[in-house]
Amino acid sequence: ADGKIKLTGDWAFPRFDYSNDEVREYLWSNMVYWVREFDVDGFRCDMAMLVPTAFWQEAAAQLREVKHNLFMLAEAEQADLFDRAFDACYAWEFHHIVNDIAQGRRRVWDLRNYLYADRDRYPRSAMRLMFTSNHDENSWNGSEFSRLGDAREIMAVFTFVVPRGLPLVYTGQEIGYDHSFAFFDRDPMVDPRPGRFTELYRLLCLLKHRN
Length: 211
Hints:
This protein is of the alpha/beta class. 45% of the residues lie in helices and 10% in strands. The longest helix has 18 residues, at 21-38.
C-alpha cells in the first residue's frame, strides 16, 4: 500500500503479490524492456518455482512476441515450468546423485534409474542444465575437486553427453581452478591461465557442437 517492496526470508527476496494485475504487468514490462532496449538473448530465473507458473507463461508469451527465439532457463526443475514457459531447467537431482556416487554414498545404477525416470518426466523439448558445479555448490559445498575427487573428469564428460542435456561450465572449471568463491563478495580468480582442464573442456564443447 505504501509503494515499498517488502523483503522477507533468508535471502531478502521481494514478496510480490502475483494476484495483482498491476504488479504482474510491471514485472513483465521490465523483462520486455531488457529485450527491446538491449537485445538480451534470454533470462535465467532464480528460484523460479517460488513464482506462479501462470506468471511465467504470460511472461514468455509477451517476451517471444518481441523475440521469438528468446531462451528461458529456470533455476528449478518442476515439470509444469515447461508448459509454455521455459526451455531449460536445472538438473538438481542429477547433481546430487553424481556427488553421492563420487563419495560412495550411492551406486551407478541410481544414476541410470534417474535418467530413465527423467526421460518420462518432461516433454521431449525440455532441456536439462547438467552441472558438476555452480555458484551455490561452489560457495557452500566446495569445488568439484573437493566434492567429486577423482571422479570430477568423468562426471564433467557425462554432463556433456546426457540426452537433452545442456552442460554448464562454472567459473574456473575451464582451467581447473580449485577454489570456493565468496558468495556475496568480489573474489576474482588469482591465476586465470589455461590449465590441463582447458583442453578437456575445449574437446567436450567441440564434441557437443558436432554431435
